Amino acid sequence: MTETILGIDTSTVVSVGLARDGAIIEHCAVGDSRSHLEQLVPTIQAVLERAGLTTANLTGVAVGMGPGPFTGLRAGIAAAEMLAYVHQIPLIRVCSLDILGLSWAGTAPEGDFVGCTDARRKELYWAVYDAQGHRQSGPFVSTPTALPNLPRIGPGVPDHGSGQSSGQRDGDASREQNKFTCSAEAKETVDERSEEHGSTGQRDGSAVS
What confidence tier does 70 reach under pLDDT thresholds 50, 70, 90? Predict the structure, then answer.
């Protein structure tokens, strides 16, 4: 049986991905850190539509559990729980920083590194990972100056002047930032679904199909 997993993470921006038998077939990340309610349902709809699927085709839902701001996390977790309940499929809860760690491990880093996201108030959520993407310590929350002297990756890095350590390879921050985008075609689909979603006034996961 084909395994089709929808991944949702709202610990930073709205990030949605779709994997079939372990291979990513569609993904998109849109919005900023304060537009989760407006962007989540349209993004899920767009990802499923571009893959030619509906939520009825899912065999599981994975959701990032943070760390991250509560309001954003709540939107993603609630949507994932609803989808899993309605379709009676497994709900897989994961640390959002672990997603960063495993993703960066695919670029063949030279050694340990720090995955971090913006915690606001001039602080970062962070954890230390080995070259295979396995978490070695954390997660923690602190100012950037408290981070260990290791290469740093994640959407929190460009927002802080001390975000890059001396060991970070040139272009790491920009390459990581590029992961938080989607194709022009996918973005257009999200925009269309956003307009439809906004016109109905719905603000929860009930519109996902």
Answer: confident
Token representation of residue 146? 């408290």
Question: By C-alpha distance, which of 3, 4, 63, 2 is closest to 36?
Answer: 63
Burial of residue 70, with CB atoms counted within 10 A of its CB: 0-12 exposed, 13-18 middle, 19 or more buried = exposed
| Contacts of 124 by beta carbon, 8 Å cutoff, 6+ apart | 116, 117, 118, 141, 142, 143, 144, 147, 156, 160, 163
What tokens were used for 64? 């990032």
Contact 127, 115 (CB under 8 A): yes
Instruction: Enter the pTM of the model.
Output: 0.74
CA atoms of 195 and 19, how far apart (whole Å) = 26
Inter-residue contact 100 to 152 (CB < 8 Å)? no
Q: Would you call 170 exposed, middle or buried from its count of C-beta atoms within 10 A (0-12, 13-18, 19+)?
A: exposed
